[in-house]
């Protein structure tokens, strides 16, 4: 029984992300293709010899490409390497677009003025670039006739059509009938 809480058959995500350095490289492979900190190639040498070259330069031996034949290791300042990796990851995260989904709940017997009020909110969300998920809750006997919920979403789709595109048509989802809409994209040119 393993000491940690992960089952023995589960992939170890931490091990996959961890970069091997110095003695770990020696244990990983007998031979490595060694690259110097200045880009100078030492060729295929024993991992012990590569580690000694790194120690002589007061740097670390870092395994760059473990899947290559033979594995590729580079002599470098590991602290600087980790800092650069984290910096690139932060920059990539900044450039990602976060899509916000707003949910609007309706009922099968919603009054027209209540529906208009909820559609007005949905149009505001769409104008802000947010996605909208309409959900019609089916109570009691309405579950035996979900077409009522589909009818409400059909009229809703017609009302938001000038502002949105239906991403996912109405579908039954447990006690709900749901539909996803996204803002219309302006045509460039």
Q: Determine the structural class based on helices, strands and strand pairing.
A: alpha/beta
Question: Main beta sheet: strand number and arrangement?
Answer: 4 strands, mixed
> CATH homologous superfamily of the largest domain - what is it?
Translation initiation factor 3 (IF-3), C-terminal domain
Q: What percent strand?
A: 25-35%
Number of strands: 8
Class of the largest domain, according to the CATH hierarchy?
Alpha Beta
From the 3D structure, determine the CATH topology of the largest domain: Translation Initiation Factor IF3
Concise synopsis of the structure shown:
With 189 residues, the protein is of the alpha/beta class. Helices cover 37% and strands 29% of the residues. It contains 6 helices and 8 strands.
Which terms summarize this structure?
189 residues; alpha/beta; Ubiquitin-like (UB roll); Translation Initiation Factor IF3; four-stranded mixed beta sheet; 8 strands; disordered N terminus
Structural features, described:
By secondary structure, this protein is an alpha/beta fold. It has helices at 13-17, 23-28, 47-56, 78-95, 112-127, 147-160; strands at residues 31-35, 41-46, 60-65, 72-76, 101-107, 131-137, 164-173, 176-183. It folds into two domains: 13-93, Ubiquitin-like (UB roll) (Roll), CATH 3.10.20.80; 101-183, Translation initiation factor 3 (IF-3), C-terminal domain (Translation Initiation Factor IF3, 2-Layer Sandwich), CATH 3.30.110.10. It is built from six helices and eight strands, in the order ααββαββαβαβαββ. The chain is elongated, with a radius of gyration of 29 Å. Residues 1-16 have low confidence and may be disordered.
């Amino acid at each position: 029984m393993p000491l940690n809480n992960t089952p023995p058959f589960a992939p170890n995500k931490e091990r996959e992300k961890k970069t091997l350095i110095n003695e770990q490289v020696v244990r990983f492979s007998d031979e490595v293709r060694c690259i110097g900190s200045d880009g100078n190639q030492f060729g295929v040498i024993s991992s012990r010899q590569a580690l000694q070259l790194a120690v002589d330069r007061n740097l670390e031996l870092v395994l760059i490409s473990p899947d290559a034949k033979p594995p590729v290791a580079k002599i470098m300042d590991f602290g600087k390497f980790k800092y650069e990796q984290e910096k690139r990851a932060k920059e990539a995260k900044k450039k990602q677009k976060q899509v916000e989904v707003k949910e609007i709940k309706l009922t099968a017997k919603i009054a027209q003025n209540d529906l208009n009020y909820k559609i007005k909110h949905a149009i505001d969300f769409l104008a802000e670039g947010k996605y909208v998920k309409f959900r019609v809750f089916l109570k009691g006997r309405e579950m035996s006739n979900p077409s009522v919920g589909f009818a409400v979403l059909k009229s809703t789709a017609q009302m938001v059509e000038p502002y949105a595109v239906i991403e996912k048509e109405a579908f039954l989802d447990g006690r709900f009938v749901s539909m996803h809409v996204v803002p219309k994209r302006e045509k460039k040119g």
